[in-house]
């Protein structure tokens, strides 16, 4: 009744000056409550076929192979593709999704880890009076609030400081940040505020003091991007979608439309990358959600199709956690070349990035030394001279390719708006391209709306607003205490499990082995400095992890946090996975040999990797000769040798299909030489590579 009275009172005054703040707040609360009730009702209607146990990857492949026809086939297992699959399956559409690598193996795991509307986009919208950019920011801020609600275990608000070194900038930046709050409206996470110089240094003591006049703090969201992507994909699987990683599209299937006489896309010929088995997946429509590879799939449909994506590389580095406070980020609004750099605490480390440079599309982008040094220089500009920013402190670095939508003739990626487009080809291929991580859900909704309309699919309305993701149900901020009390886990490990798996953390804890120590009772760590435990490897297989890299990079985030620690954990991960997946001893040996060269756990090796190992054992080979040796094994001719290519090579060698390759001999020789050496201790206090 109170809500109805508030609604009536606000309606009577017409929202004018007479409307009290009390009445408006009641109205906002009323609308929120109504939205929650509507979502609860929608969730109650949804069937969840796999509440307890997810189907295995083999079962998913069988579903893809044996289903006569799906309503929707999504190609691409990143955030947008997984979002499309979840949206489709919750509309009661028979849904399939294939990803040629692992879920979130591309750009979706290589972000800045922010859930944000985009402060710089709002600035551009205001300065250029660009309504489209303004609406993009408004939409993103709405999606930010939704994402924080549907995956509270994987995301949280983060205060970000904007230091000010000139007096005139203080009101300028304050006005901009306040506008950001106003655009968010009732979904503002927390109001921004101004700090004095003294207070700013108290909260961020590493900050450069010289000429500092104050700071402004605003709030955005932060998340574990790869785990968030995986949560979306697993949620789709629980609702009945047939999803499979390491399943690539070889070509699109087409048939003639009896009414128009035109050829229409009706599915895809797929290949299981792990076994090599090929099969057809038939569907009434196909959605292209392949991110930077959008144009490649569009050209499978039509060779004459023009490019709609202009890829841009964004490099990030990870440095030790002591470079930043535990709960305060930093924004550099104007770097030496006009870009924006974030400096953020994440997983007890510090992330710095990103760059923004045009690039070519590749499955495994490599961060360049120039980009790493650029980020380090910008970090030095904002930190106290007492803090020595060292190249040796870089524990990990990665590069992600943003699928920016642009005119093909444009070369300036920095001025491109990261908005998205949905297009449908003459043959019915639906393409969703562009956009940003934060807006994956609204992009998926728009894509499915367009798909349903174009293909005449009988479907329900969108149900993903407020739909809780994998692990969200049962999570509370104090869940980790129950894990400590019920299972005897270390506090740090329990906190990690709760924030990674949410309500599913108990499933991981149940699989944990007894340590044999007084404390902790269960939970053997993979590496001493990080809270990842062995049972997570077993659980990762249930989450469709197929390789050790899947575990190190995306089920856990060790590969993104410290490459040396990842290298140390690899043998045990391979051992656990090998036993569970019944890998032969030879296959395990081959993987270990490969990982000795792939020190950064990238999932591929280059001539640089091989050269580095050879130099360490005093073997020198001409660079051109080395390129020739790798080219023998590089089946897709991308200048890199992936783990599956190397496994195929070793299998062919064993079966006698090819004579022993020069690369295999080289790697075996290097491995034997390295194994004969005494183990070298790694001093992690200096960090990095």
> Can you tell me the number of structural domains?
4
Helix content, binned percent: 40-55%
Q: Averaging pLDDT over every residue, what do you get?
A: 84
Radius of gyration equals 26 Å
Q: Which consecutive residue ranges, at least 5 long each, have pLDDT under 50?
A: 1-28, 677-689
Name the CATH architecture of the largest domain. 2-Layer Sandwich
Number of strands: 20
Major sheet characteristics:
10 strands, mixed
By DSSP (H or I, 4+ residues per run), the number of helices equals 24
Assembly state: single chain
Annotated CATH homologous superfamily of the largest domain: D-Amino Acid Oxidase, subunit A, domain 2
Backbone shape: globular
Q: Strand share of the residues? A: 15-25%
Structural class: alpha+beta
CATH domain class name of the largest domain: Alpha Beta
Q: What does this entry show, briefly?
A:
By secondary structure, the chain is an alpha+beta fold.
What would your notes on this structure say?
Belongs to the FAD-dependent glycerol-3-phosphate dehydrogenase family. InterPro entries: DAO_C, DAO_C_sf, EF-hand-dom_pair, EF_Hand_1_Ca_BS, EF_hand_dom, FAD-dep_OxRdtase, FAD/NAD-bd_sf, G3P_DH_FAD-dep. It comes from Neolamprologus brichardi. There is one protein chain. This protein has 689 residues and is α+β, with helices and mostly antiparallel strands. It has four domains: 57-109 and 227-305 and 418-455, FAD/NAD(P)-binding domain (3-Layer(bba) Sandwich); 114-223 and 311-403, D-Amino Acid Oxidase, Chain A, domain 2, CATH 3.30.9; 478-583, Helicase, Ruva Protein, domain 3 (Orthogonal Bundle); 599-676, EF-hand (Recoverin, domain 1). The protein is 42% helix and 18% strand. The strands form three sheets. Strands 3, 4, 5, 6, 11, 12, 13, 14, 15 and 16 form a ten-stranded mixed sheet that branches. Strands 1, 2, 7, 8, 9, 10, 17 and 18 form an eight-stranded mixed sheet that branches. Strands 19-20 form a two-stranded antiparallel sheet. It is globular and about 70 Å long. The termini are far apart.
């Amino acid at each position: 009744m109170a809500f109805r009275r508030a609604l009536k009172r606000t309606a009577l005054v017409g929202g004018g000056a007479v409307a009290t703040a009390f009445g408006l707040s009641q109205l906002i609360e009323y609308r929120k409550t109504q939205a929650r009730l509507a979502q609860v009702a929608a969730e109650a209607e949804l069937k969840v076929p796999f509440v307890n146990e997810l189907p295995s990857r083999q079962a998913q492949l069988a579903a893809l192979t044996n289903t006569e026809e799906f309503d929707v086939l999504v190609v691409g297992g990143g955030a947008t593709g997984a979002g499309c699959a979840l949206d489709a399956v919750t509309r009661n559409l028979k849904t399939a999704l294939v990803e040629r690598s692992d879920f979130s193996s591309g750009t979706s795991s290589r972000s800045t880890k922010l859930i944000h509307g985009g402060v710089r986009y709002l600035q551009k919208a205001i300065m250029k009076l660009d309504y489209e950019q303004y609406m993009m920011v408004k939409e993103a801020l709405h999606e930010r609030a939704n994402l924080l609600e549907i995956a509270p275990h994987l995301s949280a608000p983060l205060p970000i400081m904007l230091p000010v070194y000139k007096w005139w900038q203080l009101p300028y930046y304050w006005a901009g940040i306040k506008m950001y709050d106003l655009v968010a409206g009732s979904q503002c996470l927390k109001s921004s505020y101004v700090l004095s110089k003294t207070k700013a240094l108290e909260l961020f003591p590493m900050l450069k003091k010289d000429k500092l006049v104050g700071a402004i703090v605003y709030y955005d969201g932060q998340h574990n991007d790869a785990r968030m992507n995986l949560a979306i994909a697993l949620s789709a699987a629980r609702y009945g979608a047939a999803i499979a990683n390491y399943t690539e599209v070889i070509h699109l299937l087409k048939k003639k439309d009896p009414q128009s006489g035109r050829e229409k896309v009706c599915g895809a010929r797929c290949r299981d990358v792990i076994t090599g088995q090929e099969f057809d997946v038939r569907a009434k429509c196909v959605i292209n959600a392949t991110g930077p590879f959008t144009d490649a799939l569009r050209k499978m449909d039509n060779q004459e199709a023009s490019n709609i994506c202009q890829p841009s590389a964004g490099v990030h580095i990870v440095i030790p956690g002591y470079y930043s406070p535990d709960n305060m980020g930093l924004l550099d609004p104007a770097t030496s070349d006009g870009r924006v750099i974030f400096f953020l605490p994440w997983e007890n480390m510090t992330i710095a990035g990103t760059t923004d440079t045009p690039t070519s599309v590749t499955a495994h982008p490599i961060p360049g030394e120039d980009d790493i040094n650029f980020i380090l220089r910008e970090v030095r500009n904002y930190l106290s001279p007492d803090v020595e920013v060292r190249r040796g402190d870089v524990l990990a670095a990665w590069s992600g390719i943003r699928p920016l939508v642009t005119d093909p003739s444009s070369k300036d990626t920095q001025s491109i708006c990261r908005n998205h487009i949905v297009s449908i080809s003459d043959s019915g291929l639906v393409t969703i391209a562009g956009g940003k991580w934060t807006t994956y859900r609204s992009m998926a909704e728009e894509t499915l709306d367009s798909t349903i309309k174009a293909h005449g699919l009988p479907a329900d309305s969108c149900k993903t607003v407020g739909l809780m993701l994998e692990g969200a149900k049962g999570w509370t901020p104090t869940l980790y205490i129950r894990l400590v009390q019920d299972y005897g886990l270390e506090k740090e490990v329990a906190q990690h499990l709760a924030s990674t798996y949410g309500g599913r953390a108990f499933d991981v804890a149940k699989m944990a082995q007894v340590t044999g120590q007084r404390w902790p009772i269960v939970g053997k760590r993979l590496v001493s400095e990080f809270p990842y435990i062995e049972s997570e490897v077993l659980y990762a297989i249930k989450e469709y992890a197929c390789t050790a890299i899947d575990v190190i990079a995306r089920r856990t985030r060790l590969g993104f946090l410290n490459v040396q620690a990842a290298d140390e954990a690899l043998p045990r991960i391979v051992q656990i996975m090998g036993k569970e997946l019944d890998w032969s001893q030879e296959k395990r040996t081959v993987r270990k040999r490969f990982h000795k060269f792939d020190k950064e756990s990238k999932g591929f090796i280059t001539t640089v990797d091989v050269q580095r190992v050879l130099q360490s054992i005093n073997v020198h080979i001409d660079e051109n000769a080395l390129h020739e040796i790798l080219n023998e094994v590089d089946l897709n001719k991308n200048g890199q040798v992936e783990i599956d290519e190397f496994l195929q090579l070793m299998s062919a060698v064993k079966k006698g299909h090819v004579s022993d390759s020069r690369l295999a001999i080289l790697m075996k020789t290097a491995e034997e030489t390295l194994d004969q050496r005494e183990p070298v201790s790694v001093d992690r206090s200096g960090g990095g590579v």
